[in-house]
Each structure stands twice: as structure tokens, then as C-alpha cells.
Amino acid sequence: MIYSQKPEMEWAVHVCEMVGDKIAAQKGFPVAHYNPFDYHNVEGRRTLYLQFIEVDETDTNEIFKFVSKYGFLGFKHDTEKVSLEPYKEERKKYSDHLASLRRTPESDGFIKELVTAISWRDVELIEDIRQEILEMRTIVNIVHEIQSGTEISLGPVFDLYSRAIPFDSTSIEEIQHEFDDQALRFFAKSAVELRIDTKLKGVHPHLGSNKDGNRFSGTWRVPTLLSAMYLMLYTDIVGSKMFRKCRNVTCNMYFPIYGNDARKVYCSNNCARLQAQREYRQRKKRDEI
Questions:
Q1: Residues 40, 107: one domain?
Q2: For the chain, N or C: smaller number of CB within 10 Å?
Q3: CA distance 24 to 72
Q4: Owning domain of residue 112
Q5: pLDDT, tens digit (0-9, with 9 covering 90-100), for 240-284
Q6: Residue 6 domain-assigned?
């Protein structure tokens, strides 16, 4: 594949806090950095976009844990001012002093503290993150249906496509009656292509050189964590790598399948055992009625 080298990317991870319906970076704490592509096709590390779609979007704490561990998505680089309320009295006290021509070490120290207090910090809405989890999970599920030749679920395909091209409320019924299986598969492919192309906006190839400077190499420049995860997904799709959600109803894990092996439906033997026990209890209960 062209530009097969791991993309060069440095993404920030802040110490975060919950502020109402937002997750916000706390000021005054050190910021860590990492390359998200260290979590893609690396032995011993679970692919980052799979970790993302496995987050329970109804659980705010799970969303917060993901952002705290891997950073803001970056899809809407929003900011807000930190409250100046704790500095109210000090601001009044130093209002004239700060305007003077001569600064003392004490006032300089306060100026630095005040600048930190009024600086902007990153915030992201929890609902926006929740919607991104749902959309990426939908895309992964549709891609699996396309690649494996299984039945296409019309509802998710319609919802995905309508994010790019709005439809009338009655359009889904019209599609359901007029589209045969082949047309529906084409429709599903188009929906996936449109959404992934949109999510990869801003990602572009970069021509670099080695340390000696005597040859060139190709890589990618990636602006956000969200686009990084979509680039991982893109490369997996192009490489015909498939993932399936575990059939155990209490498991959110996705696992790789190879050779279009439709027989594998559980991520582990433990999940297969738990689901078999659950179905046995359900059958037994029905028989007793």
C-alpha cells in the first residue's frame, strides 16, 4: 500500500473533568502526548477505533474514561474560558498596580497566575462524542455485512446515508420496496464511502525523507484523533480486514475474522459458553410455561 509507514502524529492527552454536559481539560496539569497509530495493528494492543466503538455510549463515565486515556476527538475543536471568580478580589487589588510602569517580582508572579486562569481550554460535548461512537459503530457493522455477504440492514444504511444527503421521512419505505438486494448493497457501499470520505477530510499524504536525506518516503498527516481512527478503519477496509461484534449479548467486543469465516460468532470460548448457558436457561423457562 502507498504510504505504508506508520503516520507521524502526536496527540495530546489532558487531565480532564466533567463540566455539565461537557468534558473539559483542567488547566495547570501536565499534558501527555502519544501517537494514536501505536494502537493499530500492534501486537498486544487493541486497535483504537475498536476500543472507541466498544464504549457504551449510554454510560457517561465510559466516554469520560476514553477521552481521559486517549484525548479529545478533535472533531470540534471547541474552547471555553476558565472562571475568573477565584481572582475577583486579587484583580481589584492589583488593577492599578498592574498598570504601573514598575513591576515587582510579586506582581509578575500574579500576572503569570492570572494569565493561566483566563486562558482557553479544550472542551467537547458528551453528546457529540456519543454520536461519533454510534456512527463509527454503524459503519463497521455495515462494512462487515458488505464484506461477508450477509443480509444488509436497511435502517442503519439509510440513517448513515441521510447524514450526507437528507431524505424525506417517507424515503425509507420507498427504498425498501423498490431496491433489490444488489441495489441495497450498492446503496450501503455508497453510504460508507460518503461518510468515511467526509471523516477523512483534512488527512493528506506527506512526502518526507530519511535522516540521511538521500531518499524519500511517504506517510500521512492526520489533524485529529477522530480522523486518525477513521484512517485506521480505512486501511483495514482496503486491506479486506473484517471485524464482527461478539454474539454474546453482554459483550461489546469486536473481533477479527479471516477468510470470510461465517462460523465464528464469539470473541472467545468464554463468551460462547456464557451465551449458550443463557440460551439454555431461556429455553428451559419457556418449556416450563
A1: no
A2: C
A3: 9
A4: 83-118
A5: 887 888 888 888 888 877 665 667 888 888 888 988 988 888 888
A6: no
Judgement on whether residues 87 and 43 belong to the same structural domain of the protein: no
Q: Which residues does 220 contact at the CB level (< 8 Å), separation at least 6?
A: 3, 7, 203, 204, 205, 206, 231
Residue 112 and residue 157 in one domain: no
Supply 58's cell numbers: 449510554
Q: Name residue 40's amino acid.
A: H
Q: Summarize pLDDT for 173-226 with one digit per residue, the tens.
A: 666 666 778 888 898 999 999 999 999 988 988 887 766 667 777 778 899 999
Q: Is 135 in the same domain as 107? A: no
pLDDT, one tens digit per residue, over 8-28 is 899 999 999 999 999 999 888
Tally of CB atoms within 10 A around 268? 13
The two beta strands, 78-81 and 120-125, are antiparallel
Rounded Cα–Cα distance for residues 286 and 68 (Å): 45
Nine-digit cell string for 154: 436497511
> Could you give the number of structural domains in the chain?
3
- Say if 1 falls within a structural domain: no
Same domain, 239 and 149: yes
- Cell numbers 440460551 correspond to 279
Specify whether 36 is located in the same domain as 173: yes
Grid look-up 447524514 returns: 163
Are the C-beta atoms of residues 172 and 154 closer than 8 Å to each other? yes
Q: Tell me whether residue 5 is in a domain.
A: no
Question: Beta partners for 19?
Answer: 22
Q: Which of 115, 125, 11 is nearest to 78 (CA)?
A: 125
C-alpha to C-alpha distances, 28 to 14, 85, 208, nearest whole angstrom: 10, 17, 35
